[in-house]
Specification:
393 residues; mainly alpha
């Protein structure tokens, strides 16, 4: 049962990051096929703008499908999200080009990317909620970060797939094989849909329904504890900057400014992402033992102090200097990302009502943010605003 839950949750995270990395690394080719060729600079800027728009709509996706998860069930939200992801991703692989349909091509691309952004925001909240509700009380950190590590696994798989396609035939990749990763991503998402449809609804949500405790206004309820909300907003904003540094901007810097071959950048990125996936799981295990706060503070310190040296080291222009530079960005991304996710889920759980606190087998973890009610005493004291690690409900 544990493998079934983790596998179904991880496949969505894998496809989500796979799709975004494929688009980011293929930006030059996408600009060539979906925007007017008269102005290459404007074409690449337009492509990157479409890339960025997906991040703008992510919070909206999280709110929309988090609300669905709170009202209709986690399984419903998870299955709907991965279906949308499958359709939007595969569609990019078969879109007509600007040379064929003119202005309709970038409009369709924009529509697909916006849909991907909505599903990406929804995937993160829905999967985290479902896994936290199913996890053993003393292993919530480990389970949540195991799912979170799939984000880096998906990005690594994208890097290695692109490496293989470009190594096999650069000309073919420029002409048509760039479409293959999008079709593969869509097919993988459909496998994820099959896995999720076989899941049962979480016992936590069923219990909430039985006792009439499901909320009808989950988004509004999220803002009732504004201090915790703003704390998490700040943490995740920093995470977005750090993660997109090594997923988006640094690879471009390495190829355009440092003069590294794209194949070298792909190899270095793939290695760094695999290490990041392993580090994510270790972070979760450690957070169950020593708490979330020390790890989160350490991640923030490394992020602040390591960003500038990362670019200085990257400018050396070798494979190993590139790996080291990426690691200076990957480490805080893994630590901040995993501890922030666990903290958000823990914060929800410890404010979701007395019944949740004393349930012998489950915990309440609404997919938006739980209604902030009074919480029962915890087994260990924690710092203000920080749920204790490893506490049982």
């Amino acid at each position: 049962m544990q493998k079934k839950v983790l596998g179904a949750a991880m496949v969505g995270h894998t496809v989500e990051s796979f799709d975004f990395v494929i688009y980011g690394y293929s930006a030059v080719i996408i600009a060539k096929y979906f925007f007017p060729a008269e102005n290459p600079t404007l074409a690449i800027l337009s492509t990157l703008a479409v890339y960025g728009l997906a991040f703008v709509v992510r919070p909206l996706g999280g709110a929309m499908f988090g609300s669905i998860g709170d009202r209709l069930g986690r399984r419903t939200a998870l299955s709907t999200v991965v279906l949308i992801m499958a359709v939007a991703t595969a569609a990019i692989g078969v879109l007509p080009t600007y040379g064929t349909v003119g202005i309709v091509a970038p409009i369709l691309l924009l529509l697909c990317r916006t849909t991907q952004g909505l599903s990406m925001g929804a995937e993160y909240t829905s999967a985290a909620s479902y896994v936290m509700e199913q996890a053993p009380p003393d292993r919530r950190g480990l389970w949540t970060t195991a799912v979170g590590s799939a984000t880096f696994i998906g990005a690594a798989l994208a890097s290695f797939l692109l490496l293989g396609l470009q190594s096999a035939s650069s000309a073919a990749y420029q002409a048509w094989t760039w479409r293959m990763p999008f079709l593969i991503g869509g097919a993988t998402a459909l496998i994820g849909l099959y896995m999720r449809l076989r899941l049962s609804e979480s016992s936590t949500f069923r219990d909430l329904e039985e006792h009439g405790e499901t909320t009808t206004t989950p988004v509004r309820d999220s803002f009732r504890n504004i201090r915790s909300f703003l704390l998490l907003l700040g943490i995740f904003s920093l995470l977005a900057v750090v993660s997109q540094n090594f997923l988006g901007y640094l690879p471009t810097y390495l190829t355009t400014t440092a003069g590294l071959p794209s194949l070298t950048v792909l190899v270095a990125s793939g290695v760094a992402l695999v290490i990041c996936a392993c580090l994510s799981v270790l972070t979760g295990a450690a957070s169950d033992r020593i708490g979330r706060r020390p790890l989160l503070i350490a991640g923030v310190v490394v992020a602040v102090l390591g960003s500038l040296p990362a670019y200085l080291i990257a400018s050396i222009g070798s494979l190993w200097s590139t790996i080291v530079a990426l690691m200076l960005l990957v480490i805080p991304s893994a630590v901040i990302g995993m501890t922030a996710t666990i903290t958000a889920a823990d914060w929800s759980r410890h404010r979701s009502g007395p019944r949740a606190q004393h349930s012998p087998t489950t915990s309440r973890t609404p997919s938006s943010v739980a209604r902030p009610r009074s919480s029962a005493p915890c087994s260990r004291p924690s710092s203000a605003g920080w749920p204790p690690a490893g506490t049982s409900p």
